[in-house]
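Final report, section 2: Outcomes. Of the targets proposed, Selenium metabolism protein YedF is the one most frequently requested by collaborating groups, and we therefore present its record in full.
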Amino acid sequence: MYKEVDARGLNCPLPVIHTKKALEAIDTGKVTTIVDNEVAKENVSKLAKSLACKVAIQENQGAYYIDIFKDHSIGDIPAMDIQCDITPKKDLVILISKDRLGEGSEELGKVLMKGYIYTLTEVTPLPKALLFVNGGVNLVVEGSEVIEHLRNLETNGVEIISCGTCLDYFKIKNKLMVGGIGNMYNIVENLNNAKNTIKL
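The predicted structure is given below as tokens.
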């Protein structure tokens, strides 16, 4: 069987996610993923090798054609497998304090945060809760590009809590689109009861 994934123009991690889904959809055969940058080429190649698939790469007019040959089941590989258990991870809470990821370019930071939130919907186990404080509350209100991803997480059992004081400070409480409004007690309680925390 043959499948083609045209991932040109897609931001990380979408080329990897679409390739993984295409490989899961066939028993044996070939998947050709087309990407237009070196980073995507390397990431897709690493995925294929991690699944013990043979890889051949050709470059043509600035695009990389990555042929991945599958001759075995990969159903038991958990990485980014959306078919596996999506039970929230009871010991992981993520505190999001801004609407961008990393330092430096604000524009790039927003792209990275969007990619991070989307990727959370595609990997398992899911976190127990996402806590939004300070500038992070801009991600849960009207106009945010990650509302649908956050709703997806909430539907699958992830608790979404936004700081009420922060929403009031930015005068956006009436624009809340996903999750509930919490207070510092809720935030501290979630962080204290979590075995693992991530702060962004």
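The first strand starts at residue 2 and ends at 6.
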